Amino acid sequence: xxxxxxxxxxxxxxxxxxxxxxxxxxxxxxxxxxxxxxxxxxxx
Length: 44
Hints:
single chain, mainly beta, two-stranded antiparallel sheet, about 10% helix
């Protein structure tokens, strides 16, 4: 059985987030580059 990579499984939906300095960062800015996302939730 052939090994599938993330590239073959799905395409991530486009989204924009605000970074820790207040700048907007879009997923599309990183198209074609390796990217690791670390998503955390804030503490209350």
